[in-house]
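User: Can you write out an input/output pair for a complex, sequences first and structure second?

Assistant: Here is one pair. Inputs:
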Amino acid sequence: MSFWKRAFPTILLMLVTGSALAAGGDLGAVKKAAVNIPAIIMFLVFVAATLGITYWAAQRTKTAKDFYAAGGGITGFQNGLAIAGDYMSAASFLGISGLVFLNGYDGLIFSVGWLVGWPIIMFLIAEQLRNLGKYTYADVVSYRFERVPMRSLAATAALIVVILYLIGQMVGAGKLIQVLFGLDYVYAVVIVGVLIILYVTFGGMLATTWVQIIKAGLLLFGATIIAFGALYLASDGSMSPEKMFENAVKVHPKHGAIMGPGTLVSSPIESISLGLALMFGTAGLPHILMRFFTVGNAIEARKSVFYATGWIGYFYILTFLMGFGAIVLLTGNPEFADAAAVGGIKGGQNMAAVNLAAAVGGNVLLGFISAVAFATILAVVSGLTLAGASAISHDLYANVWAHGNVDEQQEVRVSKMATVVLGIIAILLGIAFEKQNIAYLVALTFSVAASANFPILLMSIYYGKMTTRGALIGGWLGLISATVLVIIGPTVWTEILKLGDPIFPLKYPALFSMSIAFLGIWIGSMLDGSERAKKEHEAFIAQDVRCQTGIGAEGSVSH
Amino acid sequence: MQQDLVHAIKSNPKYHELVSKRSRFAWMMAILMLVIYYAFILTIAYDKPLLAAPLWAGATMTVGIPIGVAVILFAFALTGIYIQRANAVFDKLTREIKEEVL
């Protein structure tokens, strides 16, 4: 530890000056913006502050519980903000406001789907997860089942989701930073990778959580200013949404069509399947589930979801206002025009919120929101990396490979090594996927999370007759079917591989892959007449008592 | 957890009250959320003109916008209602069970 204490300030200094140098050099390439000085200054302030927090957190991160779960000392309010921060990724901030800018009302459909998963998580999963688990959701799904195969399944599914999500975030990060800061793509990806390795290895969950909380606060603050500033300007100073909508309909190429649902949802089957993926995908994201172990007890876990739902809902209403504000203020404005880009604005539709910031608050607000967007990526990638590292160290190393006989310090060391490896993998994937079409990643990530992780989690809590065999059959079938159906579906088969009409008609296969997973669990468990199955049925009683009352839960007071 | 403690809790009538009250309420709330959400998204699939209709004569604002925002507010309100009931009923029962068996 003392080596790191001495090394830390040096690394910090190298990093801050290094990124400043990188930002100044190599401006020759096309498509990069001019260097945005306020943005870089604000970003450097953010980096310095978060590295300060990491240093503070490193002093307090000693045990495995500190590293994975911030010592269990995060409050419900703080955790609610951190969860909201995980959810308000750059993709949702820029993506949803871009979607509203392009299509109007359709953007709201995604927001609603992503939000309504939260109450369901609160009613069915949050407290139970906290009462049964320790550090990862695999603790819950292997609670009364055979350790090795269940952990392997849960950790594999978790790692697949984490890596798919990471690719999207890293590529998004590289492109965003290129546009915002005028920084080379590779530099951008490397800076993100190095910073998150520092946050996670030194500060563990405590630093990751506080980086996320600060970023969530900054993002909510920035988005509020942009959204209401845009509403003021776009409604000719009246602050009336009706006036803004009138002005938007006048200038948008689709006119009145933007005020109602468009082509996003067509067939009922498609809409049901999309809804399932959006709702239950959230309940299967390992970096989100992990946050429930950072609070002291089930009551705080429940509170976290209440605050998270409030912040996320508020944020989605802001993105809707921003999208319409952008229609009014950016369309036809020569300052932001770029006829070649999607939506006719600089950087394409996904830069609608960023351009809007400049339209509302000039270079300072643009700089602020650019810095926040970068911070958002850092915070989300940190959370993902920590979740991936825990799947490797806590599930695969400590429980599968070492069968639970492992020194806590050794486990944390493995986790830190895994963080470094995952950080490097994230950098390499970011570079490898730079020029790839990554649009399918959202469909795939949410479909896998909803079809592999969520069914075994829900059933292990509620289905007393589930057995290891049933869980394995259902879990693997869900994982494989979701992956295969996305590959032979419209996004990958037709748009990316260009192999003609898709074999499977839906973009989001959750309706089918989730059904396959649940059926697999049910039939596999029913037909399991082994001795082990009988023991697992009996063990459910004790599990259910702990789940319902919290007696014996991790961190509860023992008598 | 020790077997005898599990049995003590299992045979406590308050435990059964807690489990049945909470499960009924939690599943009811979850189903309510699903019904509202699917009513919204199936309306989009089956009857787009309904949501695209002006909110009042001559308005640009459509029926769909307050409905969409209402679903978001409703989701948040449901979490608030659950918390209230959990604090008032479920936590109280849990405390009583703990006092009796531990």
